[in-house]
Specification:
This protein is α+β, with helices and mostly antiparallel strands. The chain has 5 helices and 5 strands. The longest helix is centred in the C-terminal third of the chain and has 22 residues.
């Protein structure tokens, strides 16, 4: 089982999730646990292994959609933590710019920190499951 630092894995996950699918990528070496970052915005001097596409040696860090941490997570939050606003939130997510409007609502209602904690807990659980499924140990320091 390869070991990675939990904080580095979380940072790689956020990096991959930040700019949308396919814009940023990160791969974990299944031999060393080293994380390799790929982005058009990163310095081109970064040395990437020639065999980075070899799925026997490297595994792609998932993004939030791969781990079902997008709109469905928002709906779970609304259902579990804010049922009186569930329909309002569902209506928000029927249109473009939903996350910005959702964040505005959270801020106006004083629930932004509750959402952040809910999202962080769900992310932590999903990454732990992903690691277990892929033979990766995320060490906390």
């Amino acid at each position: 089982m390869v070991k990675v630092k939990h904080e580095e894995l979380l940072t790689a996950f956020e990096f991959v999730s930040f700019a949308g699918p396919g814009t940023n990528d990160a791969y974990i070496s299944l031999e060393t646990g080293q994380i390799h970052w790929i982005s058009e915005d990163l310095d081109a001097d970064q040395e990437l292994p020639a065999d980075i596409d070899d799925s026997d040696r490297y595994i792609a860090v998932p993004n939030k959609h791969d781990l079902d941490l997008g709109t469905r997570l928002v709906m779970r939050f609304a259902d579990q933590k804010w049922p009186e606003r569930f329909e309002t939130i569902r209506a928000i997510f029927r249109h473009r710019g939903a996350y910005a409007r959702f964040r505005e609502l959270l801020t106006q209602e004083g629930r932004l920190e509750q959402w952040r904690q809910f999202e962080a807990d769900a992310t932590d659980r999903a990454l732990a499951e992903w690691c277990a499924e892929n033979g990766i140990e995320a060490e906390r320091t």
